[in-house]
Amino acid sequence: MQTAEFDYHLPEHLIAQHPADRRDAARMLCMDRATGAIQHRGIRDLPGLLRAGDALVLNNTRVIPARTHGHKPSGGKVECLFVEPVDGSDDEWLVMMKSSRRPKTGSEVHLPADLVLEILENRSDGLNRVRTSGPDSVLATLREIGEPPLPPYIHREHLCEDDPERYQTVYAKTPGAVAAPTAGLHFTPELLDEIRANGVEIVEVTLHVGPGTFRPVKTETVEAHHMDEERYEISEAAAETLNRVRSKGGRIVAVGSTSARTLETVADAQGHIVAGRGRSGIYIHPPYTFRGVDAILTNFHLPRSTLLMMMSAFSSREFLLQAYKEAVKEEYRFFSYGDCMFIS
What we know:
This protein has 344 residues and is of the alpha/beta class.
């Protein structure tokens, strides 16, 4: 397929630059794949759209304050985005760096709190493999000096006071993401309690969202794009619950593309969910038949993005773009801090 087939017109003023006043204030566009109907509702209507016996799947990854600012020994400024540790070690990390000239192998970058990065490798994917040294662990240091890694389409000179809290789900547990699983940003503890009270199972999985979530598809065809890998984990208890729900006729409802990606990674050909952990490089685009997901709550995604392609595979490209056109007409708020859609 041609990448241009996944383009759409979006007025810039619809790109949300700040979160809504309340997490549960988001509008929600509902798409019914069986009937082709589109409805305009709100996230607080979600409990009524779920059924007793369904399972709602949340991604419990926690966004780390991954963005920092340092300098070369020459004084040149370097912005660093800590992506993930190499093989789980705190001594080596993959870091994306932005500077006037890419730091050379063997050189150093100095950050606050006496954190020093030695460049071990400049990789072809734009990441740098570095050796870290400092008085504390990298994550502990980032908690002291780092900033929330807001997406590049949020154009602000400064972070807002509530960004560290609002660019994080209320159920975030496992540190490791450099981007929030944004469909989950709309939930409050009260909304989750209401969903539980209605007889819906709430299941957590983990997928640490990487910078590839914002990487545009630059190839002419969809198939030529390379999908970045992301770390995932799904427990035996989570898999058992999801398989039981399915066996009794309930639906698996994924909150966000990251939960959906995790479930599709671990689902076998019959839709049975298999527990495990690893790295997912699954690239979902039309034509693709979903095995582990029956409905999805998702935010609105960038034109020509892999996330838009995933949702096109779940509904259809034509139906999804029709819904996006309707959302633009109704002036929904787009992207990470924006509104959401429920595709059933």
